[in-house]
C-alpha cells in the first residue's frame, strides 16, 4: 500500500502499517505538482492500493492561486487514479465537506448536490469527478474538520492560546463535525481493499457543532483532566467578523454517515468522545 499526504496521511500510514506493508510519501518524496515525475515514480512500483490524503488545503491561498489549486487538488488525483487503474490497484482519495455550499441545515448525504463556493472547494470537487471518471474502483471519502496528533489543527491552536490567555474566541455561526484521524483510519480499514464499496462515502465522527462549541468542549476536557489553562470559556465570533478571510466559507457542512453505517454495520463515535480522547492522550499536565 502507498500513502501520501499530511496529517491524515501520516495517521493512516501509521495505523495501516500494523497489518500492511506501507510506503508513506511526503511532499519531498512525491511532488503532486509534477505530474510527469509522479507517473515516473509510481510506474515501476507494485502496490495493491494508494491512499491520497495530500492536498492544497489553505482555503484563502487557493482563492488567489487557482491554477496551483487545480493542479494539486484536481489534476493530481486524476493521474493517481489512472495509474491505479492501469495497475488494477485500489485508489482512495480524501476529499472535503467544502464541496458543499452550506445552505442546508440538515446533514449532507453523498447524493446531495456538490456546489462549492470557493476555489478550494471547486478544486476538490473537480478532483472527485476526475478520479471517478479515471478509475471505476476509486473510493472518494469526504471528511470534515480533521484533527489528530501528527500536525497542529484548529483545536491545537485554540488550546495553545488558552494556555496563556484568559480570553479566547471562535466562530459561533459555522457548523460541521470534528473528525479524529485515528477514527478515520479505523473506519476506512474494512474498505481498504474491498471492491464492494466505491464512489463517494462520507467518513466523519457523529454529531455537529460550531467552532466555538468545538473549542469549548476541548477546553472543558482540559480542565477536567487537570491540564493548566488560563481561559475558562470560549467567546463567540461571527463569520462576518473574520475580515482576514479571503474565500467564502460554507456555514453548514455536517456530513451524514448513514451510508457508511448501512454498508459496514458500524457507526462512527460521537465527536465529543473523540476530542476527549485526544485531549486525554496528548494534553497531559
- Provide the gyration radius in Å: 19 Å
Distance between the termini: 37 Å
Sheet bearing the most strands, described?
A: 6 strands, parallel
Structural class designation: alpha/beta
**Widest beta sheet: strand line-up:** 2-1-3-4-5-10
Average of pLDDT: 92
Please, how many helices? 10
Percentage of helical residues?
40-55%
Strand-residue fraction? 5-15%
H/E element sequence: EHEHEHHEHEEHEEEHEEHEHH
Number of strands: 12
CATH topology of the domain at 2-153 and 178-206 and 254-269: Rossmann fold
Query: Tell me, what is the CATH class of the domain at 2-153 and 178-206 and 254-269?
Result: Alpha Beta
Gross CATH architecture of the domain at 2-153 and 178-206 and 254-269: 3-Layer(aba) Sandwich
Shape: globular
Amino acid at each position: 500500500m502507498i500513502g501520501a499526504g499530511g496529517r491524515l496521511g501520516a495517521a493512516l500510514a501509521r495505523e495501516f502499517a500494523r497489518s500492511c506493508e506501507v510506503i508513506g510519501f511526503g511532499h519531498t518524496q512525491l511532488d503532486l505538482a509534477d505530474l510527469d515525475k509522479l507517473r515516473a515514480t509510481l510506474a515501476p512500483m507494485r502496490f495493491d492500493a494508494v491512499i491520497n490524503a495530500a492536498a492544497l488545503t489553505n482555503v484563502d491561498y487557493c482563492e488567489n492561486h487557482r491554477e496551483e489549486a487545480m493542479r494539486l487538488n484536481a489534476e493530481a488525483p486524476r493521474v493517481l487514479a489512472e495509474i491505479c487503474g492501469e495497475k488494477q490497484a485500489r485508489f482512495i482519495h480524501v476529499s472535503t465537506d467544502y464541496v458543499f455550499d452550506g445552505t442546508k441545515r440538515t446533514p449532507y448525504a453523498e447524493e446531495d448536490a456538490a456546489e462549492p463556493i470557493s476555489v478550494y472547494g471547486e478544486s476538490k470537487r473537480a478532483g472527485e469527478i476526475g478520479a471517478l471518471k479515471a478509475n471505476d474502483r476509486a473510493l472518494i471519502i469526504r471528511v470534515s474538520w480533521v484533527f489528530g496528533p501528527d500536525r497542529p489543527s484548529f483545536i491545537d491552536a485554540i488550546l495553545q492560546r488558552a494556555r496563556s490567555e484568559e480570553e479566547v474566541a471562535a466562530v459561533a455561526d459555522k457548523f460541521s463535525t470534528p473528525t479524529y484521524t485515528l477514527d478515520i483510519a479505523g473506519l476506512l480499514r474494512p474498505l481498504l481493499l474491498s471492491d464492494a464499496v466505491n464512489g463517494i462515502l462520507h467518513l466523519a465522527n457523529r454529531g455537529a457543532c460550531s467552532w466555538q462549541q468545538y473549542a469549548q468542549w476541548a477546553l472543558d476536557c482540559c480542565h477536567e483532566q487537570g491540564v493548566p489553562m488560563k481561559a475558562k470559556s470560549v467567546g463567540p465570533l461571527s463569520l462576518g467578523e473574520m475580515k482576514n478571510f479571503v474565500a467564502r466559507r460554507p456555514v453548514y457542512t455536517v456530513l451524514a454517515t448513514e451510508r457508511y453505517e448501512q454498508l459496514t454495520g458500524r457507526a462512527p463515535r460521537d465527536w465529543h468522545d473523540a476530542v476527549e480522547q485526544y485531549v486525554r492522550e496528548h494534553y497531559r499536565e
